[in-house]
Amino acid sequence: MGIPAASMVRANMSFMEKFLKIMKGDTEWMVLSRLLPYIWPSDRRDLRCWIIVALVMLILSKLATVLVPFFYKWAVDSITGVASLPGSKTDSQTVLLAFPVMMVIAYGLGRVFSVLFAQLRDGIFAKVSQHAVRTLALRSFEHLHHLSLSFHLGRHMGGLNRVIERGVKGIELIVRHAVLGLIPTILELLFLIFILLFYFSFLYMVTILLTMFFYLWFTFAVSEKRMEIRKAMNNFDSDANAKAVDSLLNFETVKYFSNEEWEAKRFDKSMQLYEEASIKTYISLAVLNFGQVMIFTTGMVLCMLFALFSVIEGTLTLGDFVMVNSLLVQFYIPLHFVGMIYRELKQGFVDIDSMFDLLSKQPEVTDSPRAKALVVTRGEICFKGVSFAYGPEQPGLRDISFTVPPGRKVAIVGPSGSGKTTLLRLLFRFYDVDEGQILIDGQNIADVTQDSLRAVLGIVPQDTVLFNDTIGYNVHYGCPGASEKEMQEAAHSAQIGDFVNSLASGYNSQVGERGLKLSGGEKQRIAIARTILKDPPILILDEATSALDTQTEHEIQAALSRISSNRTTIVIAHRLSTVIDAYNILVISDNGIVEQGSHEELLAKGGLYKDMWIKQLDTENRDNS
């Protein structure tokens, strides 16, 4: 059944449009222009020299590859000449045999050197590509840490990791396939066309160009379809993997409800879709490989027929005939990978473009050009008319004004969602205030560097998250330059030293992912220890004892009282009994400060604070009874 001419024209137009889009596409050129400084680094003259050496090796490799068929031809022609001499072997025949022997040796050396130069090129260029991978990965890592809190609150960690992972892989794909795959193939094609045009005839060149056109058209068309199938297969694979991981992470829940069979069915349903897509992938690959062989073999057979008739007519030698075959066979090997190169390059451009999109995101909170380092001499904190909202439809803080005198402890209490944690985020300058100022020792924190600001602030957060490393590493994180002795003293001050010493591995004990091997109280004491080790002039306690039992809470409160003495301290508290000794207690509700004063003064006022106090006493009495 024939293919309609109109369909053929549309297919060719589609191929040309896609090919030109690849060659001239804004995305690809933009990505290449942004990637070029990493491949050709202006500050690394040594790497630029290695690139030049690698390109020289590339040219030498292709020259050796192209010369191999010539040695083959000369060997065949010379052998034919010797074999046609009449009579027995004479000294003249022996002399004549030396040339074909030399050509055979040259043929072998040509093949060896073509591979040698290619491997040298790959090895040398690995220095360049891996430096680009490392540099861009490091820049992405640093950039993510510089982005504002609002970005990280809205991110999907798994997706973000995949963007970086695919972007790093995309660099390798583009470098390996564009520089080490596509460029050598194009160079070899130019050499081949040059030889066919000037050594043989125009007819050979036209045949090869037509073969190339249909070969690339077929390869790109089928590869486009295969990419769609492959994308679907990857989605099904990801879905099956997500279901498996989710089910295994919730192993106990599955057991509680005896839903093993239900989970198996969900997993198998995704795997069935993956299986179907995978079969289509293999079938399409078989079609691609067979079609490529058919198209190229047709072109090769035509060229060999041309050469055969020329040999019969006497215009070409037998060596020319085998040379044509050798040239085309050698060229088919890199050409066979064009489909893969096209697919991988396209995917690489998409992946790197996603990474560059990530790198183009700007942090919402930045240091001003005139920002100076914060200098803390007393530790006074002052909020002056501060207003802030996360968004136009989200309630925030309105006209917050208060002062924390140097060396004093001020507590912030209020219902959940009243804005207590937002105050701390503003103090750390995770967000910039909409109105007003936050001053530390009279210096507006918007006018100082973020690093110097956070260097003087120490916090024990409500939700402690530990690194998947040792206990010692997590405590040391408060001050990486501290000695082992100082680290252990901080741990003892946080009432966790004895517990650590009771472990078989001591401070080398692993805490597990997010500290899951430890209890909530143990994690919180480690957080307290690393803050003690940091020794900041300003201390912030965000529900620092919320995960502790009553006895441990009293012990930790005593330790916190010692380290907060003569230190400016802000306490976010849920248990009002932990802040009755505060110099001043701020009660936040309805987006503002509704009451403030000492514990006794607030009880005497009979307002919101007193209601909260009475409710907590009633709850504690019920729990104790």
Percent of residues in helices: 55-70%
* CATH fold description of the domain at 28-360: ABC transporter transmembrane region fold
Stretches with pLDDT under 50, minimum 5 residues: 1-26, 83-88
Strand proportion, as a percent range, falls in: 5-15%
Walk across the major sheet and give the strand order.
6-7-8-3-9-10
What's the CATH H-level superfamily name of the domain at 28-360?
A: ABC transporter type 1, transmembrane domain
Tally of individual helices = 20
What summary fits the major beta sheet? 6 strands, mixed
| Element pattern in H and E | HHHHHHHHHHHEEEHEEHEHHHHEHEEEHH
Q: Which class of secondary structure composition applies to the elements?
A: alpha/beta
Q: Could you give the count of β-strands?
A: 10
Mean pLDDT: 77
- The CATH class designation of the domain at 28-360 is Mainly Alpha
- How far the N terminus sits from the C terminus, by CA atoms, comes to 89 Å
Can you tell me the CATH architecture of the domain at 28-360?
A: Up-down Bundle
Give me the Rg, rounded.
Answer: 37 Å
